[in-house]
């Protein structure tokens, strides 16, 4: 027995290390707006399948190659959308690799760097409009052509590229649905963005969201003025119609170089505030889950559905988990809801068939399994169950 267990452990270990862990893929696009080739990285949700029946919001962020941002941000998005109480929907994550960061981030030309000194390192600045043109007319259309995307886009940036996020909000606020600006460089060009706020505040937006973060400054390292804090104050005292603002000012436990992870997490959590389902919802009627997602969809202005695997989990939990009282009728309602959400999923129909069979509703079970086989003729389980049900019905006659 010990030898057998050792062999099984060895095989499991070898198998576990036989495949690479892939979090995304690298691509290039030829940009006419920037007159250069640009690299971008894409991470797909765990459930992503090229069958056309599930569409995903898309998160775009800059500095994909910096400080493992792509690894961290794509991982955070996956973790927050997983398990039995997801906080956000599953999403496609697109990281744009920085190529000429100061050029692409700065909306104006200036040689004055943070702190007030002049440097020729900023001589390429002033290309933010071209970069936004690249995003909006080249990269986003490419992503929406190649992937199953929902009509919900988020733009995130940090520090100097956080300036790009604010510039995008000012210039074309309706293009992205939500914006995450992590300690953006609002010192730029003599606080240009603060001066432009008065004009921007006159706009009326439609269900747009902004998350902006900063931290208390260390006097020996930073200027006394915190222009991001001043920006947050302006957002509070002169709110913009149709723009929901979330903000976080960290204390000395975080600083400009450490706040990215916490800010990204809080940004997504705040943007999708109200999305999370509580763990006990599986013990209430399935219609409550439907009502929950109808409400968050209306709030955000996009059709959002719970994960197919989540609804399936709720159904099987009510069907088989004897830690709690089982309820086949409640399970059927969850599985039926899943076929409403994902009518082209053979697995959703297969699960509904299983619940009907468990409840001895043989004709309905057979019909559900037939639908599953129609969507996937290779579904051998459905075929076996249909044959089993047919024999049972013939014997019963």
UniProtKB/TrEMBL annotation:
PROSITE patterns: TPR. Residues 1-18 form the signal peptide. TPR repeats lie at residues 346-379. It comes from the Bacteria. Gene3D superfamilies: alpha/beta hydrolase, Tetratricopeptide repeat domain. InterPro entries: AB_hydrolase_fold, Esterase-like, Siderophore_Hydrolase_D, TPR-like_helical_dom_sf, TPR_rpt. Pfam families: Esterase. Keywords: Hydrolase, Signal, TPR repeat. Belongs to the esterase D family. This is Esterase. It comes from Thalassotalea insulae.
């Amino acid at each position: 027995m010990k030898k057998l267990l050792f062999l099984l452990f060895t095989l499991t270990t070898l198998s576990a290390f036989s495949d690479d862990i892939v979090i995304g893929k690298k691509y290039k696009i030829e940009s006419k707006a920037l007159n250069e080739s640009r690299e971008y990285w894409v991470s797909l949700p765990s459930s992503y399948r090229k069958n056309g029946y599930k569409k995903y919001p898309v998160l775009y962020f800059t500095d994909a190659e910096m400080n493992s941002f792509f690894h961290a941000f794509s991982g955070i998005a996956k973790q927050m959308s997983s398990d039995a109480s997801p906080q956000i929907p599953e999403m496609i994550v697109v990281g744009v690799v920085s190529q000429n960061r100061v050029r692409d981030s700065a909306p104006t030309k200036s040689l004055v760097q943070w702190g007030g000194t002049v440097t020729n390192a900023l001589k390429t600045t002033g290309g933010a409009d071209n970069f936004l043109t690249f995003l909006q007319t080249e990269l986003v259309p490419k992503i929406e052509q190649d992937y199953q995307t929902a009509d919900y886009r988020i733009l995130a940036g940090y520090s100097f590229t956080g300036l790009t996020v604010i510039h995008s909000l000012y210039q074309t606020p309706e293009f992205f649905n939500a914006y995450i600006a992590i300690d953006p460089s609002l010192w730029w060009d003599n606080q240009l963005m603060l001066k432009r706020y008065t004009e921007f505040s006159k706009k009326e937006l439609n269900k747009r969201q902004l998350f902006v973060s900063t931290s208390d400054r260390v006097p020996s390292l930073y200027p006394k003025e915190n222009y991001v804090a001043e920006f947050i104050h302006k957002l509070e005292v002169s709110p913009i119609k149709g723009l929901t603002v979330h903000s976080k000012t960290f204390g000395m436990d975080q600083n400009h170089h450490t706040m990215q992870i916490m800010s990204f997490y809080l940004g997504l959590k705040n943007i999708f505030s109200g999305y999370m389902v509580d763990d006990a919802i599986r013990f209430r009627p399935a219609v409550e889950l439907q009502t929950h997602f109808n409400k968050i969809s209306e709030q955000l202005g996009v059709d959002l559905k719970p994960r197919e695997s989540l609804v399936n989990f709720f159904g099987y939990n009510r069907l088989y988990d004897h830690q709690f009282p089982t309820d086949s009728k409640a399970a059927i309602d969850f599985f039926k809801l899943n076929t409403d959400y994902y009518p082209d999923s053979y697995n959703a129909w297969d699960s509904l068939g299983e619940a009907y069979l468990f409840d001895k509703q043989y004709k309905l079970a057979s019909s559900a399994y037939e639908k599953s086989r129609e969507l996937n003729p290779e579904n051998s389980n459905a075929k076996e169950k249909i044959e089993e049900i047919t024999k049972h019905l013939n014997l019963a006659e």
